[in-house]
Each structure stands twice: as structure tokens, then as C-alpha cells.
Amino acid sequence: MIYVIITFFLQIILLCYILYLIMKIKRVAFIEARSPGAHIYSKFPIPRLGAVLLSTILKNRGYEVRAFIEDISEPDWSFIENSDIVCISTITSTAIRAYAIADKLRAMGIPVIIGGAHPSFLPEEALEHADYVVRGEGDYSLPALIDYLTRGKPDLSEIKGISYKDKDGKVINNVPHPLIEDLDSLPVPDLSLVHNWNPASVYPVSTSRGCPYNCKFCSVIQIFGRKYRFKSVEGTIRELKHAAELTKSTKFIVDDNFAANKKRTKEILRGLLAERIKLKWTAQVRTDVARDPELLKLMADSGCDTTYIGFESINPKTLEAYNKKQDTEDIVRCIKALKEHGIRIHGMFVLGADTDDIDTIRKTADFAIKLGIDTVQFMMLTPLPGTPFFYEMRDGGRLLHTDWSKYDAHHIVFKPTLMTPATLQIETLKAMGRFYSWRYILRHLAKMEFFYAAVGMYGKKMIKRAMKEIQDYLEELHLTDLETTSFAKGCS
Q1: More confidently predicted of 213 and 142
Q2: Which of 388, 386, 383, 389 is nearest to 401 (CA)?
């Protein structure tokens, strides 16, 4: 009889414990760790949509959720520290900050899940700071993990795309989750969940994932694959219409290449025009848009203001090394064609390939100025974990360090072939300085283009600041030489 009573009470205790677990996770905080340093485009932060989308998915499941984007606003730490679980998103350059946050929260007894590009490729490292890692696309893996933590189901080993440590401390990497085919099944990211989100800010919209190209330094295909997956034309138009109704701010289509499927892109733009959806939008595209006059006209007519294009290089050998599948003539043709249609260009160049020298960098600045590109980014080639270029540099002993906070394309982190690391660093900043010159500022002022004049002024300020900081960075790495020292002093 006593045995029966004890068994009954044990069952009651177990049931209460299970109910406690089910109710345990009610409040979830998402954090997108801040960038380690300011640069010319820090003034226009745009949230990466991954954390916002996952926040939306969990909100739709009944959880109390808020997303904190540190580059946008100081988080509400009271909300975070009173959350039942915290999810942190990080890329390589923000990983150290993300780990510091995770360490602090875990010390307070708050479970931490970490995801994003960097931990997807280095889960063992991330698990030194977090309880779980969600690798790759987390749209299904994260909710399944939350279900496990609240209900004990499904079994942890059955959740695809996560990493964790077993009871013996061994890292377990479950099989990857298949890439999501039906993007229309995902909800529209709810930006109102972002703490202190300003509706007047640039509004990000994602309509596709993946890239059919294979640039060796790019981490996009390592996460999202080479198969180009996209939302339906109807679904995309609905989302853009919704965004247009929410705010009049510029819509930034964050797809790696919005025009990867030109037929689909044209159908979307025709739909915007047919439904009289008025919006100002920008997008990332490749130079091949210039080969399609109909597409260019539709882009202009539907409100395309600016295109973001990875020109990468004007050095033919470098373009070939990058596996870019374009040449300098394609770049020139693209710039001229977009200008003819009144579409502005933000040109992105990656400097420092084994085929680049000082002359390459200087000619690139001359090229951008001569062709009248509206705004530019001259970035240094950066070996991001997960990319073929990273393993090539690591295995060849050419990485200078693995201080991830410097893996932001604004600090030299590897040994180039045809110049010293310090030379690549300084010459890249000099190229930016030549582009964002007083001539650039005055030219835009004369045209009453005050936004671009302000970009030029801000650019000059940030370049001067960067030169002072870079001198300290180079000295720490014992990479300074007479040329870089004298130039840095001249900029101070």
C-alpha cells in the first residue's frame, strides 16, 4: 500500500515538473550583436532579416518576443535578462561581441541559443559560449529546438541543423536541415518587433535565397546554397505592397541578386506598375542587368533608385581568380546603361587578390571617379570562415590572426602576395579618401544633391578617424613601415 502511495505521489511530482517545463519558456529575446567599429556606412544600419523573421515565427506561436539590433539601438537589458531564453545572431565580425553577451547571460542562468553565419561554420567554437547552435537556415530548426526545451519533444537528436554538447561534453552536430524550398510558407518579417525601430528607416525586404554563382570569397552560397530559391511573384508583390503601405521610406531588397531570374523580376516589376504600387526601392544586382533593356526600363519605371553591385575588381586576372563570370567591359557597360535610365550605382570593390598590386588599387579609384559611380565601398579581401578562401589562407599559413572583430573587410587579416599587409590596408583607405574628396562634395552641392554631399562629408570624417585607428592596429601586429607611418601622420 505504501509503495502504491509513493508511486502515485512520484507520478504527480513528475507531471507537475513536465507542466512546469511546458510553461517555462514564455519570453524570448533575440539579439543581433553590434559591429565592432564604425565605418562610412555605419550611419545607415539595416537589420539582417534572419533574427526578425525568427522572432516573427515564434511570436506567431504565442511567445512574447522582442528583437534587439545593437547597431540600431541600445537593447533593453531588463527585458533580455528577464527572458526565459535568449537567441543571439552573429556574423564573423560580431562574433566576439556575441560571445561576450552569451557568457554574461549564461552566468545569470539564462539559456542561450546562437546562430548566424559564423557559428554555422564554427559550431565547436560557439558552443564554448552557448548552450545550442542553430546552423544555416533556422526557420524550422529553431522552433523545433524551442519545442524540445519546453516539451521534451522531439528528441534532441532528431532536430536537424543544430549542434550541442552531450552529457560527456562531446560536441554533437546533427545532420543539416534541408534548404527550404517554399519561401512563401514563411511569414513576412514583423519589423515592429525590433526595439526602437524607426519606420522612416530603410525598410528591408527579402524575396529570394541562394545564388547561382560561386565567388570563392563569398559566404552566401555556403549558407543558402547555389540553387536560387524565391518567393512567388504574387507573394513578393503582396509583401512589397504591404511595405509600401506601412512606410514611405526606401525599400531595400536584400536578396544577393534580385535579378538572378530576370523573367521573374520582370513579372514582379510589371505587377507593381499594374497595381500602381508606388515605392522607392533599391536592390543588389549583377552587371548582367545591362544586357536587358526591358528589365532596366521596368526597374526605372517601378521606382528603382539605386543598385548595389559587386563589381569586385577592374583587374581581369582578379575577376577570373574570384570566379566572377564578368569582365571590365561588362562593368563599364553596366554603369553607362544604369545612368542612362536614371538609376544610381553603389559600386563595391574587393581589393587584395593575389593578382592585385598597388597599381590595381589606384587604378580602381581612378576608374570609379572617371565613370561617375555615385557611391563606393573599397573593401579588403577577407577570408571568412566557411569560404574556400578562408581554408586556402589558413592552410597556407597566411592568416595574420583570428581576432574575428577585425574580419570586417576594413582591416587587413591575411598576407597578400604582391604587396605588404600594411600597404594593402593604407592604399585601400587612400582610395576611399580619393573618391570621397572635396571635389566629390562640391560637385554634389552644385547639383543640390545634399544627401550625396553629406555622404562625402561623413566619408571624409570616417576615413580620417579610421586612419588613426588603423595605425594602432598595424603597430600591434608589427606591420608598420616608413610609408604607412608617414601617411598616417599626414592624415591626423
Answers
A1: 142
A2: 383
Cα separation of 135 and 120, whole Å?
A: 4
pLDDT (0 to 100) of residue 15? 44
Joined together, the cell numbers standing for residue 205 give: 525586404
Residue 368, C-beta contacts closer than 8 angstroms, at least 6 positions apart: 347, 349, 376, 435
SS3 335: helix
* Distance between CA atoms of residues 487 and 482, nearest Å: 9
- How does pLDDT run across 206-216, given as a tens digit for each residue? 999 887 666 66
What pLDDT, in 10s, does the model give residues 111-133? 999 999 999 999 999 999 999 99
pLDDT at 353 over 70: yes
Q: b vs e for 64-87, b when ≥16 Cβ sit within 10 Å of the residue's Cβ?
A: ebbbbbbbbeebeeeebeebbbbb
- CATH class as words, domain 24-173: alpha beta
CA atoms of 432 and 270, how far apart (whole Å): 38
Give the C-alpha distances (Å, rounded to integers) separating 306 from 75, 166, 204, 344, 374: 31, 49, 14, 4, 9
Amino acid at the residue 331: I
Cα–Cα distance between 32 and 125 in angstroms, integer? 18
Which 3 state secondary structure label does DSSP give 246? helix
- How far apart CA 348 and CA 410 sit, in angstroms, is 13
Q: Are the beta carbons of 463 and 386 closer than 8 angstroms?
A: no
Pure H helices in 198-347: 220-224, 233-246, 262-274, 293-301, 316-321, 328-340
Question: Residue 410, exposed/middle/buried by CB under 10 A (0-12, 13-18, 19+)?
Answer: buried
Query: Regarding beta strands 171-173 and 162-165, do their DSSP bridges make them parallel or antiparallel, or are they unpaired?
Result: antiparallel
Alpha helical stretches, state H, 25-167: 49-60, 77-81, 95-107, 117-121, 123-126, 141-151
Q: How is residue 389 written as a grid cell?
A: 578562401
Q: How far is the C-alpha of 301 from the C-alpha of 342, rounded, in Å?
A: 10
SS3 307: strand
Mean per-residue pLDDT over the chain, rounded: 90
Q: What pLDDT, on a 0 to 100 scale, did the predictor assign at position 40?
A: 57
With bands split at pLDDT 50, 70 and 90, how would you rate the model's confidence at 490? very low
Non-local (6+) Cβ contacts of 472 within 8 A are none
Range list of H helices, 327-449 = 328-340, 358-370, 388-395, 421-435, 438-446
Q: Which three cell numbers stand for residue 236?
A: 513578393
Bridge partners for 399 per DSSP: 414
